[in-house]
# Entry
Amino acid sequence: MARHAHETQAAAQAQRVAFSEIFGPGEDPRIFFAPGRVNLMGAHLDYNGGPVMPMAINRGTFIAARRRTDGKLRMASTLEAGEFIGEVTTLARDNPRRTGTWADYPLGVALGLLAAEPAEPVGLDLLFGGNLPVGAGLSSSASICVGTALALDAMWGLQSPPMDRVHAALRSEREFVGVRCGIMDPYAVGLARPAHLLWLDCKDASHLHLPLDTERLAIAVADTGVRRELAQGEFNQRVSECGQAFRHLAPHVAGATCLRDIPFEVLLEQRTELEESVARRAEHVIREVERTFRARDSLLAGKPAGFGLEMTNAHASLRELFQVSCPELDTLVHSATALDFVAGSRLTGAGFGGCTVIIFDREREDELRARLSEDFRARHGTLPTVECFEGDLGPRELS
Ligand code: GLA
# Structure
């Protein structure tokens, strides 16, 4: 954990330096941080009302913030090109359009908070940056949105409860950016706790923290480096297909409010009535719900092998039924699960590239890294990035 704290401080300092280069000299900016997350079980279940098991990671978004005296809101990023500039007082009334850039995420949050008419909506310079790969399935978007909500809340003196900031982040992604995402990511970021997984039931948003045996186990994330431009469209298509399955199956199950409520037997009875791709999506969801409950039981019973098996089976289902994997992700899962000190592995996040997550014996980190790198290079000619995580303290201001 000491190494992690040092990394966070170094990234915060880099953000301060970049801030003065971009926005010029003056008062030191305040620095806010929000983590990313990795999801271990419950793939594509949040928008189907199922349970998920994410963990925040000590990588995320750093936001340097300083007041301006001219009432303008200026936002820039050290990670991506393009700036946003607008008038704070008229922003909500001006009803700005999406820019199609990274700035839409914080802009959507700002608009949401301004709609609540804060007492002191002063002008601000905001510089975004961080050490979380963008578009890798580690929830860079929820990290930037929850981080923005925290920074604006502090700079505008809103003092809203942490869960309000989580909801402001969610609304920005859904209503302004236009991703039909579930609740998992901002909750995982907002409810982070070190050495714990979050158990979040997305049907009613009830949640609890499950301890992880970090003496024995470590969680690694391996990044394929693959980024798919069309991933957002593919994601929304999966959401539509699940909705289609639910609308067809719901009349056969009294009281069903989401796909999670449909028993597998009902899908079997109705399968021939559904388009093949829609039936496959529904099968993944219904079986993944069962796997996620079993995984939780294994974790609570101190049986990591049982937990890992559910993860590896989840990957097969994501590949065959939900069809969101790619050859590079499959290589990483295949190499990891061939090792006797690995409990399980699967893709994490939406898929279509990005990262896998691996749960394994913490003593064997070097060996894991070496094996994954060797196999991956032999098949794909590049090296994956492999890193280990133990959770995070959650969104906060850094001193
Ligand atoms: C993306 C979405 C999440 C969730 C995952 C898949 O990360 O933002 O809401 O649906 O995909 O589990």
The pocket of alpha-D-galactopyranose is lined by residues 39, 43-44, 46-47, 139, 181-182, 184-185, 349-350 (CB under 6 Å).
